[in-house]
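Thread title: Can someone regenerate the structure for this chain?

I was given the following input by a collaborator and told the matching structure tokens would be attached. They weren't. Posting the sequence so someone can regenerate them.
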Amino acid sequence: MDPVLSTNLVWIIGVLTHLAVCIVALIVIPKRRKPTAAMAWLLAIVLLPVVGVVVYLVIGSPKLPKRRRAEQKRITALIAAAAEGLDLTPQRDSWPEWFANVTRQNQLLGGIPVVGGNTGTLLGDYRQSIESMAAEIDTAARFVHVEFFIVSFDDTTRSFFAAMEAAVGRGVTVRLLADHVSSARTVHSKETFAELDRIGVQWSYMLPVMPLKGKYQRPDLRNHRKLVVVDGRVGFMGSQNLIDRSYNAPKNIRRGLQWQELVTRLEGPVVAGLNAVFHSDWLTETGEQLDPASPTANLPVRSAVFDRSTDAIECQVVPSGPSYETENNLRLFLSLMYGASRRVIITSPYFVPDEAMMYAITSACQRGLDVQLFVSEIGDQGPVFHAQRSYYGELLDAGVRIFRYPAPYILHAKHLSIDDDIAVIGSSNMDIRSFNLDLEVSLLVRGRVFVQRMREVEEHYRSVSSELTRDEWAREPLSSTSLDGVARLTSALE
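Best answer:
Regenerated them for you:
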């Protein structure tokens, strides 16, 4: 064959193939996907067809497999059925109507109702929070449920492991869930799970990526939840993982990075909601449905101690993630921001909002609210940090006050406070990953005393942080802001 004709034929086939791929992408990618995410994927496939298609096939689906979603729907229905007729909110008549609507939305999406009669304490000291959890495990008489994104056996967590070992020795049932990818890639991960085996903890990986064992889904869909439940009486949840404050990573140690967290210790009926989340995850990962009537697995919500003091708080546990059909946490955050009348204060280590979140935040500014954002001065994840920075200009122009927590600390706490009596604390960042790709758990709280304590935490952040001004941001070099823009574009590849 004529070499020129052969070359032309190859080019024609290549162009037609590329065109066919683009047409198929235009049909497939936009379905049930946000326009920004669809455009980012289409751009990647058009500009880098081979790489774009391969990456899309690996991480293109933002949801867990259909079977897993169906199981979550079944579990949510079971939780909702168990909660039917339950009313542990004697102060309901004092709620603003918009807040009552938010709690109804949360229960519709996650199945868990709001309950009153709870007490909550905030723990901002890294080692103290682990010691507090360990101390409660030392009092366990029936069961301990532990669930973390990252689990590691090191000098910082040694007391926690010792408490679990002592509990097992007393005949207490101890169950533990750890995210597979994140825990398995930490330093000394083999030693960690060998230690769990040695002390007799029943444990399982969450969302394991083990294709040879038939366990596989999009590999970057992770279970990011952090919680501890002791006897159904006491619970802990928040931003902190079960690992040293440096995460034991050599790069973090070289930079001297230290994580700053916020955890809440809870007592009361709300602990049953936390335990329901653990039950759900245990069932989906192990296939074992824990008996809610068993004293070694649960304390019925009606059996919990109900605090009738004026300091008691009303709480609702809100699970979210790619096993649900919608973004439960994002809907919660948006509803609260639109309901706010005086102030909105956001703390998030990874702040990469979608369009809806940006509109909610800037609209709050336009309504005359005091809107503040606490982030870290430095980042531990380059692409996310630059994507986050790309929003600073718009936020400052809208009137948001941005405070940057100083190096070498990574402000990893995740919380939101609204006006004077409403707050959210949990594992969820204000970013696209937490909204769409990670399983998270958030706690909605209504109570002035609790929010006042959160205000004290925020004031500490403010006292040590530097405030970013419009003038300072205007002096950022073009090279940095250009990189920010590229990172912002790639962040939409959900």
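Residues 3-59 form one domain.
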